[in-house]
């Protein structure tokens, strides 16, 4: 089967699996324990993984907090900022095309007295930075905007957004789940970006592990938020709970591989996307419409309408030979809110399929489309 649903999850890299196995069997120590070798080995493994992620993101290793993934990180950051800074204001800005873990968290906070502004987006899912500026108030405590959209691939202008939030003295959080390993990131170039979320399974690491970047302040202390999980004080008191060392080792190795091969990975994804786009145009001609821009986007994501064809039926029919999706795996039971927000009709939404690629693919693998 040709797997083209890499925005939902990716294959674990063989090297990632290999480094994880010893920490499931032989090196099973708790890194919070002391003195004996099992504990020290686990602690050092966690430290090395944190350094690998910091290198990939362009931050310090002490700014990386491990979580179970982006959904937890998004909840932790948004709820944590809302609770800790409630006395400073009750206004949060986000957009209409965010991941459900951001939108549902914001809806929850509305029931607790917070005011949420949901920014409109353009035809490719990008916010207007002038609209953001106009929406910021004295009571605004947080802006949460996705870096790269998981359905359309569109980039928000994070450099401009970071500069705006820095000037306005407002915290900025971004869900960067889809851009890790597909965009070269150096967080030192985004001084207005205080929080970032990511998941390991989106870049060939294991499921159940991810993290958050939390920027240090001028006193070299992590920006304060209220923890989502209280307990033993692991992760600098931000995220309590026994660390899953095997998963952390896995995401660390995935980050190391991504860091070492990021330029080649990006170029490969661009090549694959261009090839598949040409195949689709040649095969289906005027019967398809592309929803995504072909510039300023995550490489390897294609959103395409098959005119007059129900996407659920098409995905089901293709399933023996091609794995694709109708949109976000986290809201698969509902029509895409992202496509609705860019102005597509319900019929257009229900005829759209997303193909998302990884560097594991070869161009010749895509030739199966010639046989459809």
Helices and strands, with pairings:
Blueprint: E1 2-3, H1 14-24, H2 37-57, E2 64-67, H3 70-84, E3 91-95, H4 100-110, E4 115-119, H5 129-135, E5 140-144, H6 158-168, E6 171-175, E7 195-199, E8 210-214, H7 245-284, E9 288-290, E10 301-306, H8 311-318, E11 322-323, H9 337-341, H10 346-349, E12 352-356
Parallel strand pairs: 1-11, 3-4, 3-5, 5-6, 6-7
Antiparallel strand pairs: 2-8, 7-8, 9-10, 10-12
Helix pairs in contact: 1-7, 2-7, 3-4
General description of the model:
36% of the residues lie in helices and 14% in strands. With 372 residues, it is of the alpha/beta class. Helix 4 (100-110) links the parallel strand 3 (91-95) and strand 4 (115-119). The longest helix has 40 residues, at 245-284. The model has no long low-confidence stretch (mean pLDDT 95).
